[in-house]
Amino acid sequence: MTDAAPTRLDELVAVMAQLRAPGGCPWDAAQTHESLVQYLIEETYELIEAIETGNRDEMLEELGDVLYQVLFHADIAAHTPGEDFDIQDVAEHMTRKMVGRHPHVFGGDRTAETADDVVGFWDDLKKAEKPGRTSVLDGIPQAMPSLALADKLLGRAEKVGLIDLSESGGVQVESEDELGPLLLAIVASAKAQGLDAERALRSTLRELQGEIREQEASV
User: Rounded distance, CA 167 to CA 173, Å?
Assistant: First the structure.
């Protein structure tokens, strides 16, 4: 019996291994997890742009670039004492995680008919996976873009009963076509006044996180 022919993903893994092996590419061999962060961020944003513009060819290319970053980090880990995992270990870990988070699909004791049903029990599953987390804020990366971080924190604030988004006041918008120009106008107004909109929002978000933790402590 002959071994199965390598898949195209196997071929890409082999290319990465050859580039970083002795006699390969000096630049690739010199990279570290830390030195590659800038490229991971850049490639991720390029993928987001391809998705948002709906360009099929660019999406195909940018998905490949992001995948290559994952393979790069896995190959570095495979040759770093104390890390010692490769892309197969990454895939195995992710498979276990996804099966564990979908008991309604993989023969568990949960049932779900709608997406809301799934969201309803995901928190319990995540708590079981990471028992060391004591706050709804744990695990939220603070380096997220400020608007994305604001969206995430508002969801957490509602979860602990600090706010009710269904009853929130403020400016009412019904579509992203309305929202975009409004956000741009706010930033333009801040710039005209010499204010830093990014810093202002992040400062407010730090205050919100403090309020969330106080709410958690009181409950």
Answer: 14
